[in-house]
User: Fold these one by one.
Assistant:
Number 1:
Amino acid sequence: MTLENYRFPAHRLQRQQRDPERTPLVLVACGSFSPITYLHLRMFEMANDYARINTSYEVVGGYLSPVSDAYKKAGLAEARHRVRMCELAAEETSSWLMVDPWEALQPDYMPTAKVLDHFEYEINHVLNGILAADGETRKPVKIMLLAGADLIGTMSTPGVWAEKDLDHILGNFGAMIVERSGTDMDEALANLKQYEDNIHVIAQMIQNNVSSTKIRLFLRRDMSVQYLIPQSVIQYIDQHRLYTDDGEGKSKDTKDKDKQRETN
């Protein structure tokens, strides 16, 4: 897929609201997903439970938005592989999650604020929101960022995020943040006091510290990652021989082509 033939995925988006007293909500997780893990997927389920039990939101959709190759992060597999692994994971494990390749297709790094603007445009302008519970009127959808606690830690650190982007993300969209061990949430939130009404902290009732970094380490050491990531993703990694070298996310076939170009 290219930007020229890109189409926004909405096949699993709930088209009509069920509870007229609630506000429709779409959750968007941005990240490397190199590779996607069960924790990435589990975050959506935790956020869905949190929204239903603790807020007046009704979750009507969830999206994974893999970052583009322009991010230039160590261990980052090619975007086409990461998008496909996310698609396989969503298809295998969920009935409501979708993968939007728009960010991954960008030639340049796309700030999170602009990615959220993209979802706002596609869902509330192109699709005109969703059908209200009465079956007659249309209702706008609230777009919200879903992320781990490490992200909120960087947001609270001066100079890491552009002030206008931070204000746009937390002020206009808001965020659901899943707690992770090693992050001081109280300290992070203290520096974001002006946005506290738009930041929802979700406690992990069962601690899960699986990370893509640890998965890549296991794969490089030829160790099993069974039950840590979806089976379809394991098969895809094996098929394309991903994460075989230290710090590399390219498939072996791509590396061989790179070497051929260097010697020519």
Number 2:
Amino acid sequence: NGAKLRMSVVDTPGFGDAVNNDEAWRPILENIESRFDAFLAQENRVNRSKIADNRVNALLYFIKPTGHGLRAVDIEFMKNLHTRVNLIPIIARADTLTPREVEQFKARVLADINFHGIHTFKPVSDQFDDPETIADNKAIASKIPFAVVGSEKFIERADGMRVRGREYPWGIIEVENEQHNDFVALRQMLLRTHMEELRDETDVTLYESYRTQKLLALGHVQDNAVFREFNPRQQQEEDERLHTAKMHKLETEMAAVFKQKVQEKESKLKQSEEELHSRHMQMKAVLEKQRHELEEKRMRMGQGDAAAHAAYNESVQAGSSKDKKKNRFF
């Protein structure tokens, strides 16, 4: 209708493609919270006449059409982000499933979401809404999670009308045909009927919850003691109790540190003892080897001496026998 819409879209290519996706959700959560932090910093300025609101008002989470329910990475992502952003689950590439499979898959996804306590954005009606609005909200809520089909190509139908869609041998799936997929209902909710509800939910509920947690973490807490009567004796007893608890905590920590140091020292001594024992055994083995070698050498030398002594005795005996023969001759 000629209305200008200022909208930013942030894409997250590569999500869930890593080998380990245990913390694939963390960069997205940090981006959302950094935008909350930027808005909070602007609110705390003296001059707040110009505040740029870059908070994320809706997160479209595309679910792979496996037909078996949510994957572990899907559940982990939703559980960590549903308190920070309006979560809208969407079944991608719904044309890969039959209409019956789409309905069954939607039921499984909703069952997983409810089982894990995940909060998703749903149109809500109140007593001031007219019957037509209530009916539209119920119709949109009944389609969650939205099963959509996307295409950038225009295809000409048999009646000559050009439509955005996908062409298959068995027919054409039109992106903007509510009988083929839920794209029109999703667009209607995001850009026409529930845009303000998404922004209000972000500002009033999600951002205020984050802001409260942030300020409490920074120490901005109301001291209710200033509204009570002051009792010096009671205050003294409270101070003594806190001091005793503090000293007990320090003693416990010092005992733990001392025990850890003793264990480390015992471990080092045990290691040194094992090293000395190993070195002693090595030296003992070397000395035993040397003793065996010396014993063998001594035995060999003893055998050589015995052989030489025997040879000497034989030569002496031979010489004496010759002398006897000569004496007989003369």
